[in-house]
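Handout, section 3.2

Students often ask what a structure token actually looks like in practice. Rather than define it abstractly, here is a full record for Cytochrome C oxidase subunit IV family protein. The first block is the sequence as you would receive it.
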Amino acid sequence: MTTADRQASRDVVKHSARHEGPQKHIIVFIFSIILTAIAFAAVAAGGVNPAFTVILLLAMAVLQVFVQMGYWMHLKDRGHMMPILFMVGGFFIAGTAIVMALYWVWW
């Protein structure tokens, strides 16, 4: 084997990408379905305290957002820091606008 052949075989090994199989996607899909079922069950159970239901729905929504962004939008992967920073900045600006609008209306 020549030096060029060895270099070529090393380049092939370096550039081979890790393929993510469907196992994680199936698990995350089932987790998303479970979160949705919990939210529907909380609303369908009429005798539950409304404050608890709202808190549970908000918690399920936040978990659902992290699951969707992390696995379906692949933001968990390397090289996605700028989209994450822009989303965090957008959430901060939107949250600030909502708080200031509520403050302006009620005080």
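Discussion prompt for tutorial groups: The chain has a mean pLDDT of 81. How would you have guessed this from the sequence alone?
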